[in-house]
Specification:
By secondary structure, this protein is α/β, with parallel strands linked by helices. The radius of gyration is 18 Å and the shape is globular.
Length: about 180
């Protein structure tokens, strides 16, 4: 059925949080699914119309294996919605603390998706407005986190930023891709 969702993480604390969140929601299942372990996907072969993978692909050692596993979980014509950080030249102390293996280029993400049986339908920059703050904090100041004040200011400005984000002349901090199972 279309009203069935599976949420996943590897961190036991997040899994506990998700299990608590799912109480009383029979349409929501919590499962520990390792993107790089094909055995974790055996029960899910061809079961989903959509897979959402946000801020994960840049952490795995073998992104092609992870993408093949997601591909296998999709029904024919199913879609993967993927978010990754963009721009290897932006790799900084903030990426290190987040344990990012890399920051993606458009061509790298397209190549990996196509190599694993996906057809890219859409690719969009995300969060152009955050680039100066990322550069200042991660590259220039070598910080390992954003201050609470910076995060609060950014969160307050999000409605405005959403309206003007596309006018900035540089690429975004991230890429959003929608890819269809061939």
């Amino acid at each position: 059925p279309r009203d069935f969702y599976v949420v996943s993480d590897l961190n036991p604390h997040y899994l506990d949080y998700l299990r608590n969140l799912s109480l009383g929601k029979p349409f929501l299942e919590v499962a520990r699914i390792d993107l790089e372990d094909p055995a974790c996907f055996e029960a899910w072969r061809g079961r989903f119309d959509t897979v959402v993978c946000l801020n994960v692909l840049e952490h795995v050692k073998d992104p092609l294996l992870a993408l093949r596993n997601m591909h296998g979980a999709l029904e024919p014509g199913g879609r993967a919605v993927i978010y990754v950080p963009q721009g290897q030249k932006r790799y900084s102390s903030l990426d290190e603390v987040l344990a990012h293996r890399c920051r993606y280029s458009r061509s790298q993400l397209v190549e990996e998706l196509q190599a694993t049986g996906f057809e890219v339908e859409l690719m969009r920059d995300f969060n152009r407005a955050g680039v100066p703050g990322w550069f200042l904090n991660g590259k220039l100041m070598k910080r390992r986190h954003f201050s609470r004040t910076q995060l609060k200011v950014f969160n307050v400005l999000v409605p405005l930023i959403r309206r003007v984000d596309r006018v900035f002349p540089w690429s975004g901090l991230g890429l959003i891709a929608v890819a269809k199972k061939r």
